[in-house]
């Protein structure tokens, strides 16, 4: 099936092609020779007691997702990551 690369380096995959490989939203991409191979992968959230503690603390503080994003961005700027 023909796909087009946009000026923003995005490729839209035809519905029929995606229907054949399942409902995954993430793909592992690799190059083999002159071919680009996309393999559907299931992504599962990381669960740990430490992460649960962070989520609980965020809830206690009543922070929104946007506020958390801003805090993380500020920390990355401050620590150069």
Question: Could you characterize what this model shows?
Answer:
The chain has 81 residues and is an alpha+beta fold. The chain folds into 2 domains: 1-44; 49-79, no CATH class. Helix content is 43%, strand content 17%. It has 3 helices and 2 strands, in the order αββαα. It has helices at 15-21, 49-61, 65-79; strands spanning 26-32, 35-41. A two-stranded antiparallel ribbon has the order 1-2. Strand 1 (26-32) and strand 2 form a beta hairpin. The longest helix has 15 residues, at 65-79. The radius of gyration is 19 Å and the shape is elongated. The relative contact order is 0.08.
Regions with little confidence, pLDDT below 50 for 5+ residues: none
User: Which structural class is indicated by helix and strand composition?
Assistant: alpha+beta
Radius of gyration: 19 Å
Q: What is the mean predicted local confidence, pLDDT?
A: 89
Helix proportion range: 40-55%
What's the total number of strands? 2
Helical element count?
A: 3
């Amino acid at each position: 099936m023909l796909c087009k690369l946009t000026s923003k380096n995005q490729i839209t995959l035809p519905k029929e092609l995606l229907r054949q490989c399942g409902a995954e939203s993430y793909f592992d991409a690799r190059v083999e020779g002159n071919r680009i191979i996309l393999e559907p992968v299931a992504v599962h959230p990381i669960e740990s007691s430490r992460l649960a503690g962070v989520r609980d603390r965020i809830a206690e503080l009543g922070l929104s997702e946007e506020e958390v994003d801003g805090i993380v961005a500020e920390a990355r700027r401050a620590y150069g990551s």
